[in-house]
């Protein structure tokens, strides 16, 4: 018997990315160097950080002039006013501002600390912002990879998130192209014929987590992973990460924290 | 160049599990049937449901006599009084009880809907409860597999969770043996020499998600996955899932929902 096997391959020795770089080309070339063949139905998982860098979404400290509003909020949350200036520009609404933490709903609909602005894995004395439109970034990378390889792939852009109730961070999808965000089991039957009423798995978040197992967070320089043989994932040309967003009213966890 | 590759193997055609079954033996036999060799450092991911079944943590509807308290709460949350009776027995404190949902902190410290009591993939007219002590269950399975194979493995028991802020469910670890729950990057330096101050990845939750990619939720009958070549995971004989629990006071997301 041949078991069901999914493979997660990290592309090693990926070059440093700078503004204007052609990520799709770099991914295809890195795959060649790693002796990895890009095939139909591969899922290419890309770290947010290199997408932001390629798109020029890195801002040097010296270019940031905090507004009065940013300075006031920075005082309240005890953070660098320049960081807060960037966060405010990326923010739709502030969810929590305390001396310990600044959590916002960003303009993409993501609930995240500092609107995803941070300075890990970017040149010193600079902050990186999330891609302006991660779905669009994913679609662009997908299209270019398909042009270069002739294969149909999916692309998932991922970033690291803290979450309520559990210690530590995990990886979430923030942009998708060519893959349905969910694997929906509702209406199917289980082993004993029971109808599944609730199960709607956020498969792109699971893909993000699986990819982090090879990517890492420090100087591994593995910002891209390729997932093979994930038959369960369903293709979709219209998919958007917005399907994962849930309004406060719909969120059954409201009032639990 | 040989790239960094992690493999996730689902053991297919796993037999139905019943109370008293020797799970470790069943896993080793299923691996043989699937032509999968269990090796040192393999991570064996096991669905909560088969652990609960093997441990007799399945209760038939006819055996449940709801208390007055359970009946009252059932009215409030519009759920079956028998379900609520079981939930209350598993509960440390109620986090939210509304006509839409019952969320509790269970006696293991997990924040979850219905204390993890459900009826998917158990015989009809019965509910399953989470294992009494999932760390202990994991340790027992690990020890027995090691005895049968002579190999050093880790075991992670997983279940499906809804989470705040994002639609859909993902898999979380609820019991661990032989593996550190975290991969801690704090104090390391990134690609540009920046010190990483926050990154402490909940690697066992990422492992749970990765395993779900092969396991599924319906009648796939793949309740066990084996993860190979995950060098980044660190072994620990004292590990406990309790390290993932975070108190309300420590949880920086408090007051965000």
Task: Please name the defining characteristics of this protein.
homodimer; 257 residues; alpha+beta; 60s Ribosomal Protein L30, Chain: A; CofE-like fold; 2 domains; six-stranded mixed sheet; three-stranded antiparallel sheet; 6 helices; 13 strands; 25% strand
Explain what this protein looks like in three dimensions.
The structure is a homodimer of 257-residue chains. Chain A has 257 residues and is of the alpha+beta class. Chain A folds into two domains: 157 residues, CofE-like (60s Ribosomal Protein L30, Chain: A); 72 residues, CofE-like domain (CofE-like fold), CATH 3.90.1660. In chain A, 26% of the residues lie in helices and 25% in strands. The first copy, chain A, is built from six helices and 13 strands. In chain A, the strands form four sheets. The first copy, chain A, has a six-stranded mixed beta sheet with strand order 1-12-2-8-9-13. In chain A, strands 4-5-6 form a three-stranded antiparallel beta sheet. In chain A, strands 3-7 form a two-stranded antiparallel ribbon. In chain A, helix 1 crosses helix 5. The longest helix of chain A is centred in the middle third of the chain and has 16 residues. Chains A and B meet through strand 1, strand 9, strand 11 and helix 6 of A and strand 1, strand 8, strand 9, strand 11 and helix 6 of B.
Radius of gyration of chain A: 19 Å
Oligomer: homodimer
Integer count of domains of chain A: 2
Question: What's the shape of chain A?
Answer: globular
Tally of DSSP β-strands of chain A: 13
* N→C terminal distance of chain A: 48 Å
Arrangement of strands in the largest sheet of chain A: 1-12-2-8-9-13
Helix/strand/pairing category of chain A? alpha+beta
Q: What is the share of helical residues of chain A?
A: 25-40%
| Average pLDDT score of chain A | 94
In the CATH hierarchy, the architecture of the largest domain in chain A is: 2-Layer Sandwich
Q: What summary fits the major beta sheet of chain A? A: 6 strands, mixed
CATH homologous superfamily of the largest domain in chain A, by name? CofE-like
Name the poorly predicted regions of chain A.
none
- Biggest chain pair interface: A-B, 90 and 90 residues
**SSE succession of chain A:** EHEHEHHEEEEHEEEEHEE
The CATH topology annotation of the largest domain in chain A reads as 60s Ribosomal Protein L30, Chain: A
State the CATH class of the largest domain in chain A: Alpha Beta
Percentage of β-strand residues of chain A: 15-25%
What is the number of helical segments of chain A per DSSP (H or I, 4+ residues)? 6
């Amino acid at each position: 018997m041949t078991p069901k096997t999914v493979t997660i391959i990290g592309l090693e020795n990926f070059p440093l990315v700078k503004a204007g770089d052609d990520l799709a080309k770099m991914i295809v070339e890195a795959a060649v160097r790693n002796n990895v063949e890009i095939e139909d139905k591969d899922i290419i998982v890309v770290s947010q950080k290199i997408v932001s860098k390629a798109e020029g979404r890195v801002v040097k400290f010296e270019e940031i002039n905090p507004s009065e509003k940013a300075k006031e909020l920075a005082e309240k949350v005890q953070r660098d006013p320049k960081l807060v200036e960037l966060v405010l520009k990326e923010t739709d609404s502030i969810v929590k501002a305390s001396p310990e933490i600044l959590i916002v709903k960003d303009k993409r609909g993501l609930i995240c600390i500092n609107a995803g602005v941070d300075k890990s894995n970017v040149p010193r004395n600079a902050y990186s912002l999330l891609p302006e439109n991660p779905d669009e970034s994913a679609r662009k990378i997908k299209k270019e990879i398909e042009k270069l390889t002739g294969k149909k792939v999916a692309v998932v852009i991922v970033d690291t998130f803290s979450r309520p109730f559990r210690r530590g961070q995990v990886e979430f999808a923030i942009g998708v192209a060519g893959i349905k965000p969910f694997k929906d089991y509702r209406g199917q039957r289980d082993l004993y014929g029971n109808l599944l009423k609730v199960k709607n798995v956020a498969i792109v978040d699971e893909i993000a987590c699986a990819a982090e197992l090879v990517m890492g967070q420090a100087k591994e320089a593995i910002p891209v992973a390729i997932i093979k043989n994930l038959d369960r994932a369903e293709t979709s040309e219209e998919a958007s990460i917005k399907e994962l967003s849930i309004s406060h009213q719909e969120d059954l966890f409201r009032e639990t924290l």
